[in-house]
Amino acid sequence: MKFFVISDNSDTYMGMRLAGMEGTVVHQYDETVAALKTAMEDPDIAVVLMTQKLVSLCQDLVYQYKQQSKTTLIVEIPDRHGSSHLEENLARYIKDAIGVKI
Most exposed: 38, 45, 70, 73, by fewest CB within 10 Å? Predict the structure, then answer.
């Protein structure tokens, strides 16, 4: 099982490449959706790492994949320009998945 990084920043991408992960750098909505779809369809990819900016570009699609995928985990990672909204996203995910608001 492999990790795959989808980044909007070449520095973040390069750091992940140095850690042995494959991935891609994208900037537009269409590129992001295509890269995510390709990664989610690859049976060898177990974890997809996406920068916060890209998750915000296609938040509904990412959320849909998170709820429906049984084999691939999508993890939102901060980049050097990102701010953290991870708590809000996690609370929303938990509320929708098990019906408990935290």
Answer: 70
**56 CB burial (10 A radius; 0-12, 13-18, 19+):** middle
SS (H, E, C) 12-38: HHHHHHHCCCEEEECCCHHHHHHHHHH
For the chain, the residue count is: 102
Tens of pLDDT, residue by residue over 71-90, are 999 998 886 665 556 566 65
In this structure, how many other beta carbons lie within 10 angstroms of the beta carbon of residue 76? 22
- Say if domain 2-98 classifies as CATH 3.40.830.10: no
Instruction: Measure the CA angle with vertex 7, ends 21 and 42; round to 5°.
Output: 55
